[in-house]
């Protein structure tokens, strides 16, 4: 498949900058037991956000809402509270210790970049005095312990995985897709969709999405050793470009000016069709995989998008990506809980 962005987190490089004596010996693990971490509610927590994004100048301008002039801060103060348990608070030093000499790779679209930048900032602010190096050489960006590599093609191949050699030997793989499958017109990054020898101009995007996911699933089942690599699929990241599904009469409304989550009981009352497709594909897999089931809890966060405070500020409307600090920090907190759970 084309249009895959790869973001790599290489933690052994950061170890050199931090120093052995600065990493505490945390031995705790999270007792997940029967708790559904993804069923709960958003609660106000004055101790949030988890970090000060102004300490991370490397955050892309599209996600830097405070830097771009967003005047409100209430959206930063919401914590995800599962109904049946408490999430461990994210501990950057503990994360670095547990995954020293490991590689964590995000494979997906710009939402993966969104989450990847959240995690790099969460780890960087945990070690604010450590040095880091940022390099950009053509299509390759390197941030001390991370590598970002992006390739775009004009033919979307549904039955072939590009750049799979980049994934070999990775300790944790986090796959995410759907965002780019929706694009049409000038934003569409392919001219044709191809499966086998059959090439066509377009097709039902949900069908194409399922075929692409099946290709990724077959690759995992064929190539991944679960003793060496832990595989996650991230749930669909919802946008809030239309309020037609929000409680109340919100036709034509988007995320602009929204400052609070949707706290209505029972919302959302429907699943994303794309999320149902993802869960269907995961149930076909023979290798153990884990679903980062962030869709439902993210649907409630109409307040957490850049809106007009992305792309350098007051240019366009972004109700797809998320401000940093912000919602992707919760995704990473859930990822952390999954990684350290027994």
UniProtKB/TrEMBL annotation:
Q: How does it sit in the membrane?
A: Single-pass membrane protein
Q: What is the lineage of its organism?
A: Eukaryota, Viridiplantae, Streptophyta, Embryophyta, Tracheophyta
Q: What is this protein called?
A: Trichome birefringence-like N-terminal domain-containing protein
Keyword line: Membrane, Signal, Signal-anchor, Transmembrane, Transmembrane helix
Domain Trichome birefringence-like C-terminal: from-to ranges = 87-147, 153-337
Q: What InterPro entries is this protein classified in? A: TBL, TBL_C, TBL_N
Q: Which GO terms describe its cellular component?
A: Golgi apparatus; membrane
Signal peptide, first to last residue:
1-19
Species in which this protein is naturally found:
Quercus lobata (Valley oak)
- A Pfam family that the UniProt record links to this protein: PMR5N
């Amino acid at each position: 498949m084309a249009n895959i962005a790869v973001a790599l987190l290489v933690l052994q490089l950061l170890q050199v900058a931090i120093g052995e004596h600065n990493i505490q010996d945390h031995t705790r693990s999270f007792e997940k037991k029967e708790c559904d971490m993804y069923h709960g509610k958003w609660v106000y927590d004055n101790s949030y956000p988890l970090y000060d994004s102004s300490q991370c100048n490397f955050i892309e301008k599209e996600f830097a809402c405070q830097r771009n002039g967003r005047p409100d801060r209430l959206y930063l103060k919401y914590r995800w509270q599962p109904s049946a348990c408490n999430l461990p608070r994210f501990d950057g030093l503990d994360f670095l210790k547990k995954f020293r000499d490991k590689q964590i790779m995000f494979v997906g679209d710009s939402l993966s970049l969104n989450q990847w930048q959240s995690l790099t900032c969460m780890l960087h602010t945990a070690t604010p005095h450590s040095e880091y190096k940022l390099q950009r050489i053509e299509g390759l960006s390197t941030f001390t312990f991370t590598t970002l590599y992006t390739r775009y093609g004009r033919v979307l191949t549904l039955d072939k995985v590009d750049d799979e050699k980049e994934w070999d030997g990775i300790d944790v793989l986090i796959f995410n897709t759907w965002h780019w499958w929706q694009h049409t017109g000038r934003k569409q990054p392919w001219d044709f969709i191809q499966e086998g020898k059959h090439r066509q101009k377009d097709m039902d995007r949900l069908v194409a999405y399922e075929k692409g996911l099946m290709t990724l699933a077959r690759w995992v089942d064929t190539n991944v050793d679960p003793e060496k690599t832990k595989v996650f699929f991230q749930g669909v990241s919802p946008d809030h470009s239309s309020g037609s599904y929000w409680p109340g009469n919100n036709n034509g409304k988007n995320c602009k000016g929204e400052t609070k989550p949707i706290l209505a009981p029972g919302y959302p009352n429907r699943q994303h069709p794309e999320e149902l497709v993802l869960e269907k594909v995961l149930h076909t897999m023979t290798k153990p995989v884990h679903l980062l089931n962030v869709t439902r809890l993210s649907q409630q966060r109409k307040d957490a998008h850049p809106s007009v405070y992305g792309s350098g500020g007051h240019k366009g409307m972004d109700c797809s990506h998320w401000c940093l600090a912000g919602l992707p920090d919760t995704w990473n907190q859930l990822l952390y809980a999954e990684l350290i759970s027994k």
